[in-house]
Amino acid sequence: MAQPLEKVDHRDAKLALAHLFVAFTALALGGFAGLLQTLVRSGKFELPSGISYYTILTTHGVLLGLVLTTFFIIGFQFAAVSRTTGALSDGSRRTGWIGFWLMTIGTAMSAFFILTGKASVLYTFYAPLQAHAGFYIGLALVVVGSWVSGFAMFAHYARWRKTHRGQASPLLAFMSVTNMVLWLVCSLGVAATVVFQLIPWSLGLTDRVNVLLSRTLFWYFGHPLVYFWLLPAYMVWYAVIPKVIGGKMFSDSLARLAFILFLLFSIPVGFHHQLLEPGISPFWKYVQVVLTFMVIIPSLMTAFAMFATFESYGRSQGATGWFGWLRKLPWSDARFFAPFVGMLFFIPAGTGGIINASHQLNQVVHNTIWVTGHFHLTVATTVVLTFFGASYWLIPHLTGRVMTKAMNRLAIIQTIVWAVGMTFMSGSMHVAGLLGAPRRSAFSTYGNSPQALEWIPYQIAQAVGGTILFIGIILILVIVINLAFFAPKGETEFPVAEAAAPYERAALALENWKLWIGLVVALILIAYTVPIIDIIQNAPPGSKGYKLW
Amino acid sequence: MAKLITAARQTKQEKEPALKGTLASVFLLGFFIIFSWVSVYFLFLHRL
Ligand code: HEM
Ligand SMILES: [Cu+2]
User: Per-residue pLDDT averaged across A284-296, rounded?
Assistant: First the structure.
């Protein structure tokens, strides 16, 4: 087998860096919005000069949930593909730049309408709340741009396979392609509701909108969206972290199988977000909840593989006893420490997800701030800390610099600050949610009703956590700016792990895209055809648009 | 193919690492999930 290239081609590095730049700009602005939210919700502060809480909340959700994640992921995957399967062709790279600009122009357009107060519809933009058409058109451009970039990756991967017949593709390339297939299939849903329902309706071409259909198409996209965020973090865990700690990947085929299972079972499950919606029959909710629970399998496979990687490494270093291997891990290396803390937080995060998806328990937590606590563990801690950990080698690798000891120490502090802040903020969100506190609410005291006053201590703890987190945002920005512009020049490794057993032929069998995409389509048709026909045929008259802010 | 499978078996038999810490960890993880789920379930029952 040909030795894989050690470095990302410098032209591809530019493309990846452009994406990371937008991602971290979104983090700065969105993080500031988050701070304001926690302060308002403590009941002790008000926003100045009539700025709406919901404008701020929309800014936060869109910038962090949609922009930070999508840009970081596409940039990271371009780098990963270039590193493991060689420099992009000029055509693929140009396509990647077209995708980048489409996404960036779309983001700027949506941001303009959000910040001018014409689109305070939150990042889920549920109808019948109606934003300015420019907001939806901007979002559509972001999605189309991401498709263009996805095709650039597919073309590059196809070219590699043609010149390497009979070989399994490098793990990171396989995983990037899986994630982009997932993204492409699921974002068709959000594109459909935006282009065929929301844009004509917001332009006044149609008067009314089928609310349930648009929410269903949104959640057909919305759940796989969270796996689109999570899978790149898993790429780092499976394919990078073993190398960072000096060990080997526990199993290459297990990693690939887990990714395929995520691809299959993360799409036909959107109803678990709509369990309390009338208009969808309980039977189809039940079917999708069962499919949702299938995702526990690859999740636990991943947990097992991580423990096994760490324990194997610790034992190879002479660890003894049940947990002696823990002491052998490189705790002072931020490239390991930040993602590791992310993994730890995924334990309560994933557990919360199982609770959310259980129909009865969903009635306890639905639309409470428990849900917000939940996804600040999943995306805003597990995923984000892993992305931070990856940035500590990816950015200097791409800019031809090295991370200094001082910056590494700051990165360790950043991780601890984030973990402490999130424990306060997310922990109190979980408890307040169980006590009934709603999410997405500018009100905190509800006219001093006794039940709402019960929530206030938690909402103050939430504000304390939010303030600590904001310090974390400042720290990560300092580190990122240092790594991009000021760190000493030098060579930084893009770590890629080797498998413990080198010739795993199962890997090749798992590269059967026709089969997987066929199964994905079949599962989607099973889970969605009948309920969507029902939603269209038995629809009420449809709703006019509302601008309640 | 058969040859490959035996080759894979052989490497496996050579060094099956002792992973009892992993076993304990996944059990603890499982108990945590069940405990949390049941706690919220009782909250649900309590509020019925
Ligand atoms: C300084 C750090 C952060 C703070 C203080 C913070 C705070 C908050 C608060 C208080 C809310 C909910 C308010 C409500 O429902 O009324 C919220 C919502 C949200 N946050 Fe954060 N957050 C932070 C970081 C993040 C990050 C890093 C992400 C994603 C990567 C994120 C994604 C979201 C999303 C998607 C929402 C939902 C918005 C909605 O319900 O429409 N947050 N955040
Ligand atoms: Cu979901």
Answer: 96
ipTM of the complex: 0.91
| Count of structural domains, chain B | 1
Residue B37 lies in a domain: yes
**pLDDT score of A233 more than 50:** yes
Number of Cβ within a 10 Å radius of residue A260: 19
Tell which one of A39, A55, A60 to mutate to probe ligand 1, the residue whose CB is within 8 A of the most ligand atoms: A60
Q: Does A510 touch chain B (CB under 8 A)?
A: no
Give contacts of A354 with chain B, Cβ < 8 Å: 33, 37
CA angle A390, A391, A396 (to 5 degrees): 120
Q: Which residues of B touch A304 (CB under 8 A)?
A: 22, 26
In a domain, B6, yes or no: no
Token readout for A139 is 């979002």
Q: Which of A374, A397, A401, A430 is catalytic?
A: A374
Contacts of A312 in chain B (CB under 8 A): 17, 19
| pLDDT range class, residue A502, cuts 50, 70, 90 | low
Beta-carbon separation of A322 and B21 below 8 A: yes
Higher-confidence residue of A354 and A51: namely A354
| A464 has a pLDDT exceeding 60 | yes
Q: Is A222 in the pocket of ligand 1 (CB under 6 A)?
A: no
> From ligand 2's centre to the CA of A367, what distance in Å?
13
CA A32 to ligand 1: nearest atom: 1
What is the number of the ligand closest to the CA of A433?
1
Q: Judge: B33–A351 Cβ closer than 8 Å, yes or no.
A: yes
Q: What's the confidence (pLDDT) of residue A5? A: 46
Asked, for residue B46, whether it belongs to a domain, the answer is yes
Topology of domain A10-537, CATH: Cytochrome C Oxidase; Chain A (1.20.210)
Distance CA A505, CA A499 (A): 12
pTM of the model: 0.94
- For residue A47, count CB atoms less than 10 angstroms from its CB and return exposed for 0-12, middle for 13-18, buried for 19 or more: middle
Q: Is A475 in the pocket of ligand 1 (CB under 6 A)?
A: no
Interval A170-205: pLDDT, tens: 999 999 999 999 999 999 999 999 999 999 999 999
Contact predicate A270/A283, CB 8 Å: no
Residue A346 vs residues A6, A102, A334, B33: alpha-carbon distances, Å = 31, 33, 18, 11
| Nearest-Cα residue of chain B relative to residue A430 | B40
- Between CA A143 and CA A138 the distance in angstroms is 9
Atom of ligand 1 nearest to the CA of A122: 41
Sorting pLDDT into bands at 50, 70 and 90, what band is A442? confident
pLDDT band at residue B48 under the 50/70/90 scheme: confident
Domain with B23 in it: 19-48
Residue among A41, A60, A223, A430 flagged as catalytic: A223
Helix (H) or strand (E) holding A299: helix A296-316
Better pLDDT: A402 or A501: A402
Residue with tokens 């660890």: A319
Q: What is the pLDDT of residue A498?
A: 86
